[in-house]
Amino acid sequence: LSTCVVGDGETACDRGATVTVCVYASVHNLEGNKFRIKIVDEAHHLERRELGGFTGLIKHGVSADMVAHFSATFHVQQGIDFEYGIDEAIENGYVCDFMVTAPIGPKEAWILENRKRLIPMFLVLNRVDKARHCARILKQIGRS
Question: Whose CA is closest to 20, among 9, 33, 143?
Fold first, then answer.
């Protein structure tokens, strides 16, 4: 498993890397790239109405076959049903019937286990220390 980090002074990435980890503020360095899957952490930052800056680039400038946005922060919590399950959402027609694979526990181990069907992968994290930590763990476990 090969990883690269874009951010904190790193502006280029090995195009052969299986996982690219990037911070929000550096996503402009990857504009035009395409990945198999794009995972965006702290995606509530993308709720802003304007599409300028990193918001538009994360949504539209870096493409992927599959996209997952994760957040535990909701700016407006009225009307959010925290108990609304996937079965009910399928029945109501809000999502299609599909298999959901979600990591439980450390995301790095899940990525390693599923790398054959998920790479090349693009991870967007909002802090450089998180991005570097994730990339470091992926490199370590990818060698075993």
Answer: 33
